[in-house]
Specification:
alpha/beta, seven-stranded parallel beta sheet, two-stranded parallel sheet, disordered C terminus
Length: 348
Protein backbone atom coordinates (compact mmCIF):
# COMPACT_ATOMS: atom_id res chain seq x y z
CA UNK A 1 0.00 0.00 0.00
CA UNK A 2 1.50 3.33 -1.09
CA UNK A 3 1.59 5.94 1.68
CA UNK A 4 4.53 8.25 0.98
CA UNK A 5 5.20 8.52 -2.76
CA UNK A 6 8.19 10.17 -4.43
CA UNK A 7 7.60 11.13 -8.08
CA UNK A 8 10.48 12.10 -10.36
CA UNK A 9 10.06 14.43 -13.33
CA UNK A 10 7.08 16.40 -11.97
CA UNK A 11 8.05 19.51 -13.95
CA UNK A 12 7.45 17.66 -17.20
CA UNK A 13 3.95 17.33 -18.60
CA UNK A 14 3.21 13.69 -17.81
CA UNK A 15 4.90 13.87 -14.42
CA UNK A 16 2.80 16.87 -13.43
CA UNK A 17 -0.39 15.28 -14.74
CA UNK A 18 0.38 12.13 -12.77
CA UNK A 19 1.07 14.11 -9.57
CA UNK A 20 -2.26 15.95 -9.91
CA UNK A 21 -4.14 12.70 -10.46
CA UNK A 22 -2.39 11.04 -7.52
CA UNK A 23 -3.34 14.01 -5.34
CA UNK A 24 -7.01 12.97 -5.62
CA UNK A 25 -6.32 9.63 -3.94
CA UNK A 26 -7.09 10.06 -0.21
CA UNK A 27 -5.20 6.87 0.64
CA UNK A 28 -1.90 8.54 -0.29
CA UNK A 29 -0.58 10.24 2.83
CA UNK A 30 2.18 12.38 1.27
CA UNK A 31 3.52 13.08 -2.22
CA UNK A 32 6.99 14.45 -2.98
CA UNK A 33 7.57 15.81 -6.48
CA UNK A 34 11.22 15.95 -7.54
CA UNK A 35 12.77 17.81 -10.47
CA UNK A 36 15.66 20.14 -11.28
CA UNK A 37 13.42 23.12 -12.14
CA UNK A 38 10.16 24.28 -10.55
CA UNK A 39 7.03 23.13 -12.41
CA UNK A 40 5.12 25.67 -14.48
CA UNK A 41 1.93 23.71 -13.98
CA UNK A 42 -0.01 22.53 -10.95
CA UNK A 43 1.22 19.36 -9.25
CA UNK A 44 -1.77 19.09 -6.92
CA UNK A 45 -0.95 18.58 -3.27
CA UNK A 46 2.50 17.19 -4.08
CA UNK A 47 5.35 18.98 -2.29
CA UNK A 48 7.92 20.16 -4.79
CA UNK A 49 11.52 19.31 -3.93
CA UNK A 50 14.18 20.84 -6.13
CA UNK A 51 16.71 18.06 -6.61
CA UNK A 52 18.61 16.30 -9.38
CA UNK A 53 18.21 12.52 -9.47
CA UNK A 54 21.78 12.38 -10.79
CA UNK A 55 22.91 13.61 -7.36
CA UNK A 56 23.20 11.25 -4.36
CA UNK A 57 21.18 13.82 -2.38
CA UNK A 58 18.07 12.02 -3.62
CA UNK A 59 18.86 9.27 -1.10
CA UNK A 60 18.71 11.71 1.82
CA UNK A 61 15.34 12.97 0.64
CA UNK A 62 13.98 9.42 0.62
CA UNK A 63 15.35 8.69 4.06
CA UNK A 64 14.11 11.90 5.70
CA UNK A 65 10.58 11.54 4.26
CA UNK A 66 10.28 7.80 4.81
CA UNK A 67 9.38 7.19 1.16
CA UNK A 68 7.85 3.76 0.57
CA UNK A 69 6.95 4.11 -3.14
CA UNK A 70 9.13 5.60 -5.89
CA UNK A 71 7.51 6.45 -9.24
CA UNK A 72 10.12 7.13 -11.91
CA UNK A 73 8.50 9.38 -14.53
CA UNK A 74 11.70 11.13 -15.56
CA UNK A 75 12.77 8.97 -18.51
CA UNK A 76 12.85 11.64 -21.21
CA UNK A 77 11.92 10.90 -24.82
CA UNK A 78 12.52 14.30 -26.46
CA UNK A 79 16.09 15.67 -26.36
CA UNK A 80 15.17 19.09 -27.72
CA UNK A 81 13.29 19.87 -24.50
CA UNK A 82 16.39 19.16 -22.42
CA UNK A 83 19.00 20.98 -24.45
CA UNK A 84 20.25 18.06 -26.50
CA UNK A 85 20.99 14.37 -26.65
CA UNK A 86 23.88 14.47 -24.14
CA UNK A 87 21.69 15.91 -21.38
CA UNK A 88 18.87 13.53 -22.25
CA UNK A 89 21.15 10.50 -21.89
CA UNK A 90 22.62 11.75 -18.61
CA UNK A 91 19.17 12.17 -17.06
CA UNK A 92 17.81 8.91 -18.44
CA UNK A 93 20.75 6.63 -17.74
CA UNK A 94 22.91 8.26 -15.07
CA UNK A 95 19.83 9.63 -13.31
CA UNK A 96 18.22 6.18 -13.20
CA UNK A 97 21.43 4.63 -11.86
CA UNK A 98 21.63 7.15 -9.02
CA UNK A 99 17.92 6.82 -8.25
CA UNK A 100 18.17 3.03 -8.03
CA UNK A 101 21.30 3.30 -5.88
CA UNK A 102 19.33 5.47 -3.47
CA UNK A 103 16.42 3.00 -3.52
CA UNK A 104 18.81 0.14 -2.79
CA UNK A 105 20.14 1.85 0.32
CA UNK A 106 16.72 2.93 1.53
CA UNK A 107 15.13 0.77 4.23
CA UNK A 108 11.69 2.30 3.69
CA UNK A 109 11.28 1.83 -0.09
CA UNK A 110 9.08 -1.19 -0.81
CA UNK A 111 7.78 -0.44 -4.32
CA UNK A 112 9.25 0.94 -7.55
CA UNK A 113 7.12 1.96 -10.53
CA UNK A 114 8.88 2.88 -13.78
CA UNK A 115 7.46 4.59 -16.86
CA UNK A 116 9.22 2.68 -19.61
CA UNK A 117 8.54 2.61 -23.33
CA UNK A 118 7.70 0.24 -26.16
CA UNK A 119 10.80 1.75 -27.79
CA UNK A 120 12.76 -1.07 -26.09
CA UNK A 121 11.44 -3.38 -28.82
CA UNK A 122 12.92 -1.27 -31.59
CA UNK A 123 11.45 -1.62 -35.05
CA UNK A 124 12.64 -3.74 -37.95
CA UNK A 125 11.22 -5.76 -40.88
CA UNK A 126 12.08 -9.00 -39.03
CA UNK A 127 9.96 -8.25 -35.96
CA UNK A 128 6.91 -10.32 -34.99
CA UNK A 129 3.45 -8.89 -35.61
CA UNK A 130 2.94 -8.44 -31.87
CA UNK A 131 5.54 -8.17 -29.09
CA UNK A 132 4.68 -9.81 -25.79
CA UNK A 133 6.59 -8.77 -22.68
CA UNK A 134 8.85 -11.84 -22.70
CA UNK A 135 9.99 -11.33 -26.30
CA UNK A 136 13.28 -9.74 -27.32
CA UNK A 137 13.67 -7.61 -30.45
CA UNK A 138 15.49 -8.96 -33.47
CA UNK A 139 17.60 -5.82 -33.44
CA UNK A 140 18.08 -3.78 -30.26
CA UNK A 141 17.82 0.00 -30.53
CA UNK A 142 21.34 1.37 -30.99
CA UNK A 143 20.74 5.08 -30.54
CA UNK A 144 18.56 7.65 -28.86
CA UNK A 145 15.65 7.16 -26.51
CA UNK A 146 15.18 3.50 -27.45
CA UNK A 147 18.74 2.67 -26.36
CA UNK A 148 18.26 4.65 -23.15
CA UNK A 149 15.06 2.72 -22.38
CA UNK A 150 16.86 -0.61 -22.84
CA UNK A 151 19.60 0.49 -20.45
CA UNK A 152 17.10 1.80 -17.91
CA UNK A 153 15.24 -1.51 -17.88
CA UNK A 154 18.54 -3.37 -17.51
CA UNK A 155 19.40 -1.34 -14.41
CA UNK A 156 15.92 -1.96 -12.97
CA UNK A 157 16.31 -5.71 -13.46
CA UNK A 158 19.69 -5.55 -11.71
CA UNK A 159 18.12 -3.64 -8.85
CA UNK A 160 15.35 -6.26 -8.53
CA UNK A 161 18.00 -8.96 -8.08
CA UNK A 162 19.75 -6.97 -5.37
CA UNK A 163 16.52 -5.99 -3.60
CA UNK A 164 14.04 -8.86 -4.16
CA UNK A 165 11.93 -7.46 -1.32
CA UNK A 166 10.97 -4.39 -3.42
CA UNK A 167 7.87 -4.77 -5.62
CA UNK A 168 8.49 -3.61 -9.18
CA UNK A 169 6.17 -2.59 -12.01
CA UNK A 170 7.41 -1.32 -15.38
CA UNK A 171 4.90 -0.08 -17.93
CA UNK A 172 6.06 -0.15 -21.54
CA UNK A 173 3.91 2.61 -22.98
CA UNK A 174 3.18 2.90 -26.68
CA UNK A 175 3.72 6.37 -28.17
CA UNK A 176 1.66 8.79 -26.09
CA UNK A 177 -0.62 11.31 -27.82
CA UNK A 178 -3.34 13.68 -26.70
CA UNK A 179 -4.69 17.21 -27.05
CA UNK A 180 -2.05 18.92 -24.90
CA UNK A 181 1.01 16.66 -24.63
CA UNK A 182 4.06 17.35 -26.82
CA UNK A 183 6.09 14.32 -27.87
CA UNK A 184 8.23 13.44 -30.86
CA UNK A 185 5.25 11.76 -32.53
CA UNK A 186 2.87 14.71 -31.97
CA UNK A 187 5.52 17.18 -33.16
CA UNK A 188 6.05 15.04 -36.25
CA UNK A 189 2.39 14.96 -37.26
CA UNK A 190 2.12 18.70 -36.52
CA UNK A 191 4.59 19.55 -39.29
CA UNK A 192 3.00 21.58 -42.12
CA UNK A 193 4.19 18.90 -44.57
CA UNK A 194 4.87 15.44 -43.17
CA UNK A 195 7.83 13.49 -44.63
CA UNK A 196 7.00 9.78 -44.88
CA UNK A 197 9.31 6.87 -45.79
CA UNK A 198 9.04 6.16 -49.50
CA UNK A 199 7.24 2.88 -50.21
CA UNK A 200 6.11 2.23 -46.62
CA UNK A 201 2.91 2.72 -44.68
CA UNK A 202 3.62 1.21 -41.27
CA UNK A 203 0.99 0.37 -38.69
CA UNK A 204 1.58 1.12 -35.04
CA UNK A 205 -0.24 1.64 -31.75
CA UNK A 206 -0.77 4.68 -29.58
CA UNK A 207 -1.92 5.39 -26.05
CA UNK A 208 -3.87 8.48 -24.99
CA UNK A 209 -2.28 10.68 -22.32
CA UNK A 210 -5.25 10.08 -19.99
CA UNK A 211 -4.91 6.31 -20.37
CA UNK A 212 -1.15 6.49 -19.78
CA UNK A 213 -1.73 8.29 -16.47
CA UNK A 214 -4.58 5.97 -15.47
CA UNK A 215 -2.32 2.95 -16.07
CA UNK A 216 0.47 4.54 -13.99
CA UNK A 217 -2.03 5.20 -11.19
CA UNK A 218 -3.11 1.55 -11.21
CA UNK A 219 0.54 0.46 -11.19
CA UNK A 220 1.11 2.62 -8.11
CA UNK A 221 -1.93 1.71 -6.03
CA UNK A 222 -2.64 -1.84 -7.28
CA UNK A 223 -0.60 -5.03 -6.92
CA UNK A 224 2.88 -5.25 -8.45
CA UNK A 225 2.76 -6.82 -11.92
CA UNK A 226 6.30 -6.75 -13.33
CA UNK A 227 6.58 -5.68 -16.97
CA UNK A 228 3.39 -4.79 -18.86
CA UNK A 229 2.75 -3.39 -22.35
CA UNK A 230 0.24 -0.52 -22.46
CA UNK A 231 -1.45 0.53 -25.71
CA UNK A 232 -4.85 1.37 -27.10
CA UNK A 233 -6.74 -1.25 -29.09
CA UNK A 234 -6.21 -1.47 -32.81
CA UNK A 235 -3.66 0.15 -35.09
CA UNK A 236 -3.22 3.28 -37.15
CA UNK A 237 -1.04 3.73 -40.21
CA UNK A 238 1.14 6.67 -41.16
CA UNK A 239 -1.12 7.77 -44.01
CA UNK A 240 -4.23 7.43 -41.85
CA UNK A 241 -2.59 9.71 -39.30
CA UNK A 242 -1.62 12.33 -41.88
CA UNK A 243 -5.20 12.28 -43.17
CA UNK A 244 -6.65 12.73 -39.69
CA UNK A 245 -4.13 15.49 -38.99
CA UNK A 246 -5.02 17.18 -42.32
CA UNK A 247 -1.40 17.14 -43.44
CA UNK A 248 0.00 16.71 -46.94
CA UNK A 249 2.81 14.18 -47.22
CA UNK A 250 6.27 14.31 -48.73
CA UNK A 251 7.69 10.82 -49.53
CA UNK A 252 11.44 10.50 -48.93
CA UNK A 253 13.74 7.50 -49.43
CA UNK A 254 14.48 5.69 -46.19
CA UNK A 255 18.20 6.04 -46.87
CA UNK A 256 17.97 9.84 -46.77
CA UNK A 257 15.88 9.92 -43.61
CA UNK A 258 18.82 10.72 -41.34
CA UNK A 259 19.71 13.81 -43.36
CA UNK A 260 16.10 14.94 -43.42
CA UNK A 261 15.83 14.30 -39.70
CA UNK A 262 18.84 16.49 -39.01
CA UNK A 263 17.32 19.33 -41.06
CA UNK A 264 13.95 19.07 -39.29
CA UNK A 265 15.62 18.88 -35.88
CA UNK A 266 17.77 21.96 -36.55
CA UNK A 267 14.67 23.87 -37.58
CA UNK A 268 13.30 23.30 -34.08
CA UNK A 269 9.99 22.01 -35.43
CA UNK A 270 10.31 18.41 -34.25
CA UNK A 271 12.61 15.71 -32.97
CA UNK A 272 13.08 13.39 -35.91
CA UNK A 273 15.36 10.55 -34.87
CA UNK A 274 16.53 7.42 -36.67
CA UNK A 275 14.42 5.34 -34.27
CA UNK A 276 11.32 7.29 -35.19
CA UNK A 277 12.01 6.91 -38.88
CA UNK A 278 12.29 3.12 -38.58
CA UNK A 279 9.05 3.02 -36.58
CA UNK A 280 7.30 4.92 -39.36
CA UNK A 281 8.76 2.53 -41.93
CA UNK A 282 8.30 -0.85 -40.22
CA UNK A 283 5.81 -0.19 -37.42
CA UNK A 284 5.40 -2.05 -34.14
CA UNK A 285 2.70 -4.14 -32.48
CA UNK A 286 2.20 -4.79 -28.76
CA UNK A 287 0.42 -7.73 -27.19
CA UNK A 288 -1.69 -6.16 -24.43
CA UNK A 289 -3.02 -9.38 -22.87
CA UNK A 290 -1.13 -8.79 -19.61
CA UNK A 291 -2.42 -5.22 -19.49
CA UNK A 292 -5.94 -6.59 -19.10
CA UNK A 293 -5.44 -9.86 -17.26
CA UNK A 294 -2.62 -8.92 -14.87
CA UNK A 295 -2.67 -5.12 -14.51
CA UNK A 296 -6.46 -5.12 -14.86
CA UNK A 297 -6.46 -2.03 -17.08
CA UNK A 298 -8.87 -1.24 -19.92
CA UNK A 299 -7.97 1.85 -22.02
CA UNK A 300 -10.74 4.33 -22.70
CA UNK A 301 -9.25 5.24 -26.09
CA UNK A 302 -8.31 3.06 -29.03
CA UNK A 303 -5.16 3.91 -30.98
CA UNK A 304 -7.30 5.65 -33.59
CA UNK A 305 -9.53 7.58 -31.18
CA UNK A 306 -6.45 8.70 -29.24
CA UNK A 307 -4.97 10.16 -32.41
CA UNK A 308 -8.32 11.69 -33.37
CA UNK A 309 -8.43 13.52 -30.03
CA UNK A 310 -4.97 14.90 -30.76
CA UNK A 311 -5.89 15.82 -34.33
CA UNK A 312 -9.06 17.68 -33.28
CA UNK A 313 -6.91 20.17 -31.40
CA UNK A 314 -4.38 20.55 -34.21
CA UNK A 315 -4.34 23.65 -36.38
CA UNK A 316 -4.78 23.04 -40.12
CA UNK A 317 -1.61 22.96 -42.20
CA UNK A 318 -3.08 25.81 -44.27
CA UNK A 319 -4.90 28.23 -41.91
CA UNK A 320 -8.50 28.83 -42.92
CA UNK A 321 -8.66 25.92 -45.33
CA UNK A 322 -11.09 23.46 -43.74
CA UNK A 323 -11.15 21.17 -46.74
CA UNK A 324 -7.50 20.22 -46.61
CA UNK A 325 -8.30 17.28 -44.34
CA UNK A 326 -10.79 15.86 -46.83
CA UNK A 327 -8.35 16.26 -49.69
CA UNK A 328 -5.56 14.53 -47.83
CA UNK A 329 -7.93 11.83 -46.61
CA UNK A 330 -9.10 11.04 -50.15
CA UNK A 331 -5.53 10.81 -51.38
CA UNK A 332 -4.08 8.94 -48.42
CA UNK A 333 -5.74 5.62 -49.16
CA UNK A 334 -3.86 5.11 -52.41
CA UNK A 335 -0.66 6.98 -51.61
CA UNK A 336 1.34 4.10 -50.18
CA UNK A 337 0.41 1.66 -52.93
CA UNK A 338 1.19 4.14 -55.68
CA UNK A 339 4.55 5.04 -54.17
CA UNK A 340 5.42 1.38 -53.77
CA UNK A 341 4.67 0.64 -57.44
CA UNK A 342 6.87 3.52 -58.59
CA UNK A 343 9.64 2.47 -56.21
CA UNK A 344 9.54 -1.10 -57.53
CA UNK A 345 9.87 0.08 -61.11
CA UNK A 346 12.99 2.14 -60.42
CA UNK A 347 14.81 -0.61 -58.57
CA UNK A 348 17.63 -2.25 -60.59
Amino acid sequence: MANVVLVTGVSRYLGGLYARRLSHDPSIERILGVDVVPPRHSIGRAEFVRADIRNPMIGRIMSQAGVDTVVHMNVIATPKDMGGRVTQKEINVIGTMQLLAACQKSESVSRLVVKSSAAVYGSSPKDPAMFSEDMSPKSLPRTGFGKDSVEVEGYVRGFSRRRPDVEITMLRLANVVGPTIHTSITDYFSLPIVPIPLGFDARFQLVHEDDAIAAMMLATTGPAVGIVNVAGDGFVTVTQCTALARRPVFPVPLSSGSLLGAIVKRSGLADFSTDQLTLLAFGRGLDTTRMRTVLGFEPQYTSRSAFEDFARHLRPAVPGVDGVGDAVSDAAGGTAAAIARVFDRIQP
